[in-house]
Task: structure prediction
Amino acid sequence: MELEKVRLLKSEIIKNLNGIHQVKQLEPKFQNFFKDYRDSTQRMLAVGYAKKKAGNYSLELRVKSKNGKAAELACRIRDTLKDDVNIKILRNIKIPDSPAECEKLAKSQSNYNFTGYPPFCTKNKTLSIGLSIGHSNGGSGTLGAFFIDPDNQNKLILSCNHVLALCNTAEEGDPIFHPGSVDSSCTSDNIIGYLEKYYHLSTENAKQYDAAFAKLKSKIRIKGNVIPEGDFKGQYIHPPNTEAVVIGTEVEKFGRTTGHSRGAVKSASMDGIKIEMDNINDKTKTFSFNDIFEVYSIKVDEPFSKAGDSGSLVFYRNNSEFYAIGIVFAGAETAGFEGSEYKPISLCYTLKNVINDPNITYKWYEND
Result:
């Protein structure tokens, strides 16, 4: 399908999933399947698209298992549209950055190790992207990017809500530490700033971002939005320059756990991704997210991200310049619907949505 056609079809399916109207490109009998899906209690049918080849796109459907109303509806859609639909299973969609979740994951996977990338997990006198940060009551996440408040010139850092604001349970003004609690003791010497503002995560709204800002202490030194190490160390990363994530783009990130890694955007504009977050007032809650893109690692034996990399800035190279594109906030395993080996993927939200939000007045920090 052409890009505009697949976008239109995706939009119509999303509206029908929400009970707004009928999908024009599907037969009327499909309405019963949509109704059965809406009436089911356990449901996740995420819808996006991917690039098959130049000018040709497929509708991408994601379900949590091969059973249930979501899988049944996905198969009905695929059977109608044939080769223009690709179904994949997403399992273990979790955000395991809390100490309890990391310990649980370590016990369940013999090869799992939460030990981070040493240069990012030890105390740095000058802050850079990729470093270990966190709230004293949470786990360790990653410093994603630097911003500035144009009203008072205060410098801020961006990471995930679940890293800095603990899924809405923290309070503005709470101290933020580097390194994070898993990597060091949360003493006054390690306070780098204070929680300033965060998106309130809601179980009722999918147009939301797992994002939070912390205001840095005035004497904290920063390197800014530059590549922290490697062949391009010190090169500036520009803010997002496109309105949409380009499928097939090769991307990079620096994170607390895996350090520097490379991947590729395989699908974009995924709406309806449902993610469980634990330890929210001793409960597990499920949140929905829209406009998510999936990143697969270029290296077969190394994932693009692991627990602790939440908050990592995802960026890409265009000729000799680097541009930000999104933020890692979750991980999962995926496999083909007909059966194939499960592989890790990273789920990222689109950074332009945060920057363009009228409620966020902070500006991308531009290095001198």
Summary: The chain has a mean pLDDT of 87. Helices lie at 3-17, 30-39, 69-81, 99-108, 118-121, 161-164, 351-355. Residues 98 and 184 are 14 Å apart (CA to CA). The radius of gyration is 20 Å.
